[in-house]
Structures are given as C-alpha cells and as structure tokens.
Amino acid sequence: MVHCQPGRRGLIQSAALTLAASAVGLPVWANGAEAPLPKIGSALRLPDTRLLDGRLWSPSGMQGKALVVYWWASWCPFCAVQSPHIEALWRAQKTNGLEVLALSIDKLPAHANAYIKTKGYSFPAGMLTPQVAKMLPKPRGLPVVVVVKVNDQDGRSGKVVFAEAGEMFPEDIEGLKKYI
C-alpha cells in the first residue's frame, strides 16, 4: 500500500510528531521543506553516506539487491515502534540480499547515535545531511520507508518498488522481503 496523500492516520501522526518535536526543542519543518513520497517506478540515485559508527556506506556492489531507505528520528514515537521491526527484517534478510540505509533526521548525530546504541540496532544508520538530502530528500511524514531495487551496474541508482509514509504494521515490514 502506498500513501501519497495523508489520510486521517497521517494527519494524526503529523500532529503527534509536531508536538513531540516541539516538546524537545527540535525544529518543525514546514510542509514545503519535505519532498513528496517517491512514485513507484521512479528512479532514485544513491549517495555514499557516512554512518553513525564512522564507516562509509556505499551503494557500489548493490546490483540486483533491494535497498530499504528508512527515515527516522530518536524522538519519533512511531519510529520507536517501527525500528525494532526494521532491525528484525535486516537481521533476517541481510544474507539474502536485503540492504538497509536508515537516515536520522535528528538535529545532532550524538542523539541518533546514542539511541541506536541504547536500542542495540545493527542496521546501517547515518544522518540526513544536506549532501545526502540532495539525492535522498526526506519525504513528508515520519517514519518513511522506500524500497529501491538496484539494477544498474555501479549500484548508484535503482527503481522505487515500494513507498510508505507513517508507521507500518509489523507484517507489512516483514512483507518487504518479497522485493529481494
């Protein structure tokens, strides 16, 4: 299921995220500052990304793989529910060709890094820096999951096969393995 226009669930989540962000002193983005959810079949370029643990994530060598791009934040209550399921999918399917690139929108990398460490997540996670956002702008909503099937030779781009804004049910996250 792909949601391009926020329904009642999206409006409720948006209001809750706005309250959560403002409660902890984080900036609340104007709607115009976020990109629309990518359309199924559209091309997406993939940047090299510095991970929170200091490693460099590179899309090279991803030909034929499915990449789950996951935008999240440490202060997002919906991300807190969804992230353990992304982690479970990552652990279960990484040897089958599933890749994950989680992009935190936290204001400070230290907050995102502390959260990842506290929760024991192992999926590759970096920050949505301005450089990364040029190629992978954050769509409206949070959390956001986009699955890209990488088919080009250098692994730098692929086609969007799934896109969802807002918290997903655990069985829907488990179902992402069909894109491998």
Helices and strands, with pairings:
Elements lengths: L7 H16 L19 E3 L3 E2 L5 E2 L8 E7 L4 H17 L4 E7 L4 H11 L5 E3 L2 H6 L8 E7 L6 E9 L4 H5 L6
Parallel strand pairs: 4-5, 5-6
Antiparallel strand pairs: 1-8, 2-3, 4-7, 7-8
How would you describe this protein?
- This protein is an alpha/beta fold and 180 residues long.
- The chain has one domain (8-27, 34-179): 3-Layer(aba) Sandwich (Glutaredoxin).
- It is built from five helices and eight strands; from the N terminus they run H-E-E-E-E-H-E-H-E-H-E-E-H.
- The protein has helices at residues 8-23, 77-93, 109-119, 130-135, 170-174, and strands spanning 43-45, 49-50, 56-57, 66-72, 98-104, 125-127, 144-150, 157-165.
- The strands form two sheets. A six-stranded mixed β-sheet has the order 1-8-7-4-5-6. A two-stranded antiparallel ribbon has the order 2-3.
- Helix 3 (109-119) links the parallel strand 5 and strand 6.
- The radius of gyration is 15 Å and the shape is globular.
- The model is unreliable at 1-32 (pLDDT under 50).
